[in-house]
């Protein structure tokens, strides 16, 4: 601890700032679940059940932002050094994360509307952009050699393959929305589960 | 500090992210206490006293989220290593924590309503789920051997017993709500005090 | 880093959680400054100047929460070990901090109202309670010997004297509100400046 | 880790608190992008495109707060020790950061209004004050010798020159607003890009 070791310190603060952004984005969501008002006697249970879409939206957004945090964590577990470019690329990723509540609310509001395909395309388009930013972050750290020297060289490569596929599959999901909006959402969900559960 | 020691680093970031979520959930609550509007001369003191339920709700929610933070802290004081599953199980627990404001508002709004038992069941049901998630977290860390090697083996076992009782007692509280909603809330409060004050 | 050193780890997390609470409480305040709407041509500058009370309220709240953070920081710079009681006492203090926006809004709304003395008493009463909690925190850490062994024994004693005077002066401010609400607020401000600027 | 090393601990907590403030300020912004309501069939895409100013405002504010975080990070990478004055000066800077959403909303609302020059002057005035606070922070740390002893003496001097120019250029931008509000905004944007992209 006597040596300055500025690189380690830098990564710590990028992670702390990112954690703050993820934590706020994930916690603000509950504010959108409303208590039903002026319910007659004997009707509260039904009134609560009827607002299932708002619970589902809460659960979906929580899961998606949580999964993105896990992936961010997974990449930064390997990164031990930092530079100016890493701050900028990480900033792009956080921009995507803080934007997520908007397309999610859009899909929730327009799901049975004739224009639902537009909402689903915006939704999948957001994840397309985020998956590109994840690739940028990973690729930047890889090319600049910011990984810990002790990192097993297979770990970055495994992440690499999983991330490269992401943008392609989100492009497919965007095209699919023109044919079938529900199928497009299901593909999005499948991708989220894949990125959430896959172990490196 | 020359060795990579990736496990310690991981726990630190899970705790930082969780701290952020707890801190936001506990701080947002004050936004719901409103300043009384257009009060006549000589009536402000009474107007302030009359909104005692909103102070009580603020106090209750603050205490409950605070107690959950203390318990989270207590478990992670013992956990020194981390893996992918720990991230997922901890995520479930945070999902429960961020959901708490909704059932609390529900009880506050429906406490003297004929359907108050529904509100109290949802309230205790939320804590049942959270207590199960606490057991999952503790059990996962125990089975995967994520505790620090220096941990006194009695500490985890003491926590274990206190946590295993939790879901059973919350189930009792849910059943009790069908008979007497107030008694069910009192049992919930007693459990919160027990988990808040018990020292390991 | 090879020794577990659980005490240091604990203090770190209490501070991180407290930092989150302070940061959120201090940042949410700007949401209450509103952009003036539908202002005629040539009137925007005046419209902006006319809402000076909302800038003053923003500045006051920011300063007060900032000063409390500095004092919290000052105490925890000395505390290196932690136990269950410290979590509870620190929780009481955070409860006071998250409550601050309510009495501040109350004073802003009722400052030229016949009942302004009520609002000012609630305002100073909140700071009375917070100053008692600061004494509790400091006294608890002192009695339980949670300070770092290297701590100069004069530093805690200096803080001690400054903190013990606090509750007495806030009591004076509460009594003063019955005679003159403005004088009571000025005393509160003077105390805030004293605690903000005094160096240990 | 056996030595107390209180200075390093202090800087860590100032940075953690500041990170929290920056993270909240940057994340709250998305709450202001609204989902368009009651859009007729076939009109959603257009309705979404028509609210481009709110996306632009989101992007602008995110970038500006992000750039200020990068600059804060850059300064604190060099600062390793802390004292009471640093807390106060850093507090001034955070005051400026939490205020940013107000002038940004002001410009967004009054951009094609006859009084747009007032809004743009407030906007650039805010950045003038923030740039002065950045100079105060840097100057304070420099004069009090709070930099790490290992710091290359050229790094602080490089930052010094870039920061000293800031207030002068923001003064020019304020004057320019009287002649041409758009040109004043463009100069502000150019400065933001300069401070965001310049590497030390």
TrEMBL record, chains A, B, C, D:
Keyword Membrane: yes
Ranges annotated as spanning the membrane: 55-72, 84-105, 117-141, 162-195
Endpoints of the signal sequence: none
Pfam family, one: TMEM175
UniProt KW keywords: Ion channel, Ion transport, Membrane, Potassium, Potassium channel, Potassium transport, Transmembrane, Transmembrane helix, Transport
Protein location: Membrane
Superkingdom as given in the UniProt entry: Bacteria
Keyword flag Transmembrane helix: yes
PANTHER family referenced in this protein's UniProt entry, alphabetically: ENDOSOMAL/LYSOSOMAL POTASSIUM CHANNEL TMEM175, ENDOSOMAL_LYSOSOMAL PROTON CHANNEL TMEM175
Family, per entry: Belongs to the TMEM175 family.
Protein name: DUF1211 domain-containing protein
Organism in which the protein naturally occurs: Allomeiothermus silvanus (strain ATCC 700542 / DSM 9946 / NBRC 106475 / NCIMB 13440 / VI-R2) (Thermus silvanus)
Classification of source organism: Bacteria, Thermotogati, Deinococcota, Deinococci, Thermales
